[in-house]
Amino acid sequence: MINAEKNRAIGLKMLNPSQKDLEHGLELHRDSFVFDAYGFSPLCGGRSPREDELIAAGASRDEIHYANEEHHMSGGFEDPENRRRLAEAWAMSGVDCVFQNSGEESNDPERLIKRLGNYTFNVDRCSEIYERCTFPDRLEEVKKRGHKVLYMTTNGVPISVKQISSDESLNLIGTFFNLGVRMMHLTYNRRNLIGDGCVEEANGGLSGFGRQAIAEMNRCGVIPDVAHTGQRSSLEAAQCSKRPVVASHSAVWKFSGHCRAKDDEVIEAIAKTNGYIGICGYPGFLGGSGDINALLDTIDYVAKKFGVDHVAIGTDRGVSLTPWEFNDKIPNSRKIWEQYWGNVNCSNSGTEEQFGSVCWTNWPLFTVGLVMRGYSDADIRKIIGGNVLRVCKDSMP
Fold first, then answer.
1. CB-hemisphere CA count at 13 Å for 275?
2. What are residue 154's DSSP bridge partners?
3. What dihedral angle (degrees, nearest 10) is formed by the CA atoms of 158, 162, 166, 171?
4. Which one of 44, 69, 217, 286 has the lowest number of neighbouring Cβ atoms within 10 Å?
5. How confident is the model at residue 315 (pLDDT cuts 50, 70, 90)?
6. How buried is 153 (Cβ within 10 angstroms: 0-12 exposed, 13-18 middle, 19+ buried)?
């Protein structure tokens, strides 16, 4: 794992726990059900073995991109050594389940299903590490068997534009639920048919169709996720949903003013649905010191103001098991539609030390930090996984 030991040392230096707190935190982490509210299972680095062939054949940027994604998410794990590194990374993180980004940023069902297919196949390929589990009341049983779980989410709601009625256009929500998807982003930064994303300066809120989409998600058992959704859209989603709403990987506006952070009014509305805000691991989102202490400060703020039942950790991070390689033969192109843009604070910059302190393999140190801040074991168990598990159960039909 790249820089894992170095990052562990960085995090420990920043926290500087007593031996008693360190030992208790690590033991509590091992004993708890740890559920990353939104993240990435460890990836293979390198390039697809098909890349040169595709370039020579004149393949498009997107064809090459997909071949590399397939290698990073699934194909590279055909190598037993990469599967060994995969098991090692999971063991170092102490995470039991990740709400896995398994659908590319879009409302296009064809784009969404590609990444879902890669991760579904990888769980099957690495059966000595993973189990397939789509019912939340069975998740803790998997931990007892010593296996890990990817619980699937997509970065968009699948919408068919080929149908005549709005009801028909939402039928694929149920189809994706049957394929194992349990959470969906309402928007991804920009405005879509559902509502305004977090970088839309108009901040226009939900559409009528968006309210209908949330009702269908409620019916099927899919959690509405407002992590990339605008403030007003997030507020209105929480107000109209009959089941919990979450901001799976976000931050607090008061600390950073970042477009991906949520203000107090939105967090309160999410809490009223019995949902949670997942605190992410990006320095620019967190504000303050931008490191592991800023992550803990943000958790403190939400827990004390809105209740410990309404905060989780959604790192939005992963780890590369082998070095990344970049090929200058691949042509540059414009950013994808869903990418950040506009005159808003959307920086995710930070120093190597800041990023390192909140890296995915430092998950056990998040628990240690909560011990240091005086949280009870019961409340820590909620923050590091219990709240996510509760919402997953409450959202099922």
1. 31
2. 184
3. -50
4. 69
5. very high
6. buried
Q: How many CB atoms lie within 10 A of CB 182?
A: 22
DSSP three-state, residue 340: coil
For 126-191, the DSSP string reads: TTTTB-----GGGHHHHHHTT-BEEEEEESS----SS-SSHHHHTHHHHHHHHTTEEEEES--SS-
Which of 98-102, 229-233, 332-336 has the lowest average pLDDT?
A: 332-336
State which residues form the domain around 299: 4-395
Q: What is the pLDDT of residue 387?
A: 98
Q: Tell me, what DSSP letter sits at residue 200?
A: -
* pTM exceeds 0.90, yes or no: yes
Q: Which residues pair with 152 in a beta bridge?
A: 100, 181
> Is 70 exceeded by the pLDDT of residue 340?
no
How many percent of the chain have pLDDT more than 70?
98
Give pLDDT, residue 343.
64
The candidate with the shortest Cα–Cα distance to 211, out of 176, 237, 232, is 237
Quickly list DSSP for 221-286.
TPEEE-TTB-HHHHHHHHHH-SS--BEEEEEEHHHH--TTEE-HHHHHHHHHTT--EEE---HHHH
DSSP helix/strand/coil, 356? helix
| Residues 347, 352: Cα–Cα separation, whole Å | 15
Supply the CATH number for residue 18's domain. 3.20.20.140
Q: What's the number of domains the chain is made of?
A: 1
Flag whether pLDDT at 150 surpasses 90.
yes
Residue 279's pLDDT is what? 98
